Amino acid sequence: MLYDIPLTIGIEEEYQIIDPQTRELTSYVQQLIDSGRVILGNQLKPEFMQSQIEVGSKVCANIQEARAEIIHLRRTVADLARQHGRVIAAAGTHPFSRWQDQNFSAGERYDDLQSTMQDAVRRLLIFGMHVHIGFGDFNDRAPREMSITVLNQLRYFLPHILALSHLFPFLARAQHRHEELPQPDLREHAPLWHRAHLQKLFRIR
Fold first, then answer.
1. Helices 63-83 & 29-40, crossing angle to 10 degrees?
2. What would be the CATH architecture of the domain defined by 2-132?
């Protein structure tokens, strides 16, 4: 059944824009976009922070196409940054740049985020990778059923990903113990069927 559905894949990546001298995040996204749009067009985008730049692959028919796309995008963005005296880094967050020092992009969407969420969104000094899977035409029954099946399988891993996603031992130039970092107590809100998994993860140091 799975092989009859024309699955597609698309990948987005968010990169840090780094000053190679200080190794701090640097607000330089607009200059890179102005130069890179000629080469990458709409595959190059700004993000909430001006020290962040996003690339998006085309819709790919398989993993091999997606891999070639990402290699091309990474090399192109790295070359653009080098031409402007900057470097690109791919990591979940920055170990010592502070969120308070970041400049934020203009635009209605970003203004709304700041207005409604205030420091909760400004503190998100994070850089992600998004993998999008297309299941074909949802007017057909088979793609709809397959997407539900896949989501049900992925649901098993959500508590593991959620528990691990907020653990980062380096914050604001200092190394922290797990207990010192601000964090919700996920165990209190977790459904019974996966509390045992969370208990195991919280015992890991």
1. 130
2. 2-Layer Sandwich (3.30)
